[in-house]
Amino acid sequence: MSKAVVLLSGGLDSATVMALVGSEGYEIYALSFDYGQRHRVEIESARKLAQSYGALHVVVPLPSVSFQGSSLTTKELSVPKREKLGEGIPNTYVPARNTVFLSFALGFGETVGAFDIFIGANSIDYSGYPDCRYEYLTAYEQMANLALKETVEGRAKVKIHAPLLSLTKAEIVALGLSLGVDYSITHSCYDPDEEGRACARCDSCAIRLRAFAENNVVDPAPYRY
Amino acid sequence: MSKAVVLLSGGLDSATVMALVGSEGYEIYALSFDYGQRHRVEIESARKLAQSYGALHVVVPLPSVSFQGSSLTTKELSVPKREKLGEGIPNTYVPARNTVFLSFALGFGETVGAFDIFIGANSIDYSGYPDCRYEYLTAYEQMANLALKETVEGRAKVKIHAPLLSLTKAEIVALGLSLGVDYSITHSCYDPDEEGRACARCDSCAIRLRAFAENNVVDPAPYRY
Q: Which residues is A30 bridged to in the sheet?
């Protein structure tokens, strides 16, 4: 059985990726990161998702020093509301986030013998993050294959899989629904309340709600409309 | 004043890089990593070095999950002694170590506005690590420039500096001595005793001792010969 590392945030995209990877019969190693994000409730979603797909789940506590200056990790910045959608890279951008996440996946993957790394990056209907683009992911893969003992000695090849990259958010939801994803346990909101309910107003909520609406399905996740 | 991030292990190479960066007038942000390495005493060396060059020093505690299967982090594997020198990639190899370190430097660097990243990687007289080669570092730099908001929007350019890459270990020691590096506070041994004294027998000690001998200088670091 082939092994895969799945970057599992607990959100809509990574839940859909988990379902895809599960349907392809991989032995799954799921990685989640606790990096001081406001929406840490997503880690609990990740835990439930990993369990439902029989994945080995590791939560990596990252020191907050690496991820400062983002509204996702700093109380002084407020998460932008939907009127700002589409105006360049928003302040929810976290410096080098996917680079750090993929690098842990790379090291952990080599340790367990998994070189297929899955990430829910998505360049359509996205928030404008540079590390969610095809050019970036391709460059990462090239670098990765020069970095590891197993690849340099010719026994393995790292493949960064981003199966959602060119799907619209509505297409992702449609795919997930066809794979039976339980979206009620996923979490996407950047600014949840203390009970973990989504705000329905941040970029992430706005994009998600529109995608469900386009599928004529009510989003089953909890909101504080 | 330009800002630089220096990956500072506390060893001979990174101490020499610190001296070089200091001589070039950068404002220095030094990053060290606590990843469960046996030779954690090197972090204390890093602290002293950072202080002596007026650098802001951050020690990043990394979860050990990322770095398993190496003799540097696992008690079950023994550090190879010098008779093995030069036979391929040794078991002191740590999966994706420089990739993880550089990725933290990238995120931290963008946060503080530092895009010149210095690493003491060295491809001559080295231990055969794939992530210490020119091809790898070049690929990393290309990826990095596609990853960050500041670079993608054209306000900065990431440069991965590896000034020791094509120097022999003896040339590195000569350079450091000319820059006044206090090598007595550096630590290179993979297998120190409880007092932090170097073993004089592991790859790292063997390479270091030979380099000092070639400079006709006695290595001032403490050994348990």
A: A6, A57
Write out pLDDT tens, residues A63-82. 766 565 555 555 555 555 54
Residue of B nearest to A58 (CA): B65
Domain boundaries, chain A: 3-214
**Tokens linked to A187:** 């979490």
Contacts of residue B184, defined as CB under 8 A and 6 or more positions apart, other chains included, come to: B220, B221, B222
As a whole number, the mean pLDDT across chain A is 88
Average pLDDT for chain B = 88
**H or E stretch including A32?**
strand A27-34
* CA-based R_g, chain B, Å: 17
- φ/ψ of A77, rounded to 5, equals -100, 140
- Strand B27-34 to strand A116-118: parallel, antiparallel, or no bridges (unpaired)? unpaired
Provide the chain A residues 140-159 that lie in CB contact (below 8 A) with chain B.
140, 142-144, 146-149, 151-153
Decide if B163 contacts B118 (C-beta within 8 A): yes
pLDDT at res. A191: 87
Taking an 8 Å cut-off on Cβ atoms, the answer to whether B110 and A96 are in contact is yes
* Between B37 and B86, residue with greater pLDDT: B37
Mean pLDDT computed over B28-43: 87
Question: What's the complex ipTM?
Answer: 0.87
Query: Residues A169-172: contacts with CB within 8 Å, 24+ apart?
Result: A169/A12, A169/A122, A169/A124, A169/A125, A169/A207, A169/A208, A169/A210, A169/A211, A170/A125, A170/A210, A170/A211, A170/A214, A170/A215, A172/A12, A172/A13, A172/A16, A172/A122, A172/A211
The residue type of B110 is E
Tokens for B105, please give them: 């430097």
Band of pLDDT at residue B186, cut at 50, 70 and 90: very high
Rounded distance between C-alpha atoms, residue A179 and residue A194, angstroms: 31
A146 membership: H or E segment, kind and range: helix A134-147
Report domain B3-214's class. Answer: alpha beta
Length of chain B: 225
Task: Count Cα neighbours of B86 within 13 Å in the Cβ-side half-sphere.
Answer: 5
* Interface residue of A7, A32, A34, A66 to substitute, partner B, most B CBs within 10 Å: A66
A145-154, A193-202, B35-44: which is most confident: A145-154
Q: Which residues of B touch A56 (CB under 8 A)?
A: none
H/E element, A152: helix A149-152
Report how far Cα A50 is from the mean position of its chain's Cα atoms: 13
Listed in sequence order, the DSSP H helices in chain B are 12-23, 41-52, 97-112, 134-147, 149-152, 169-178, 203-214
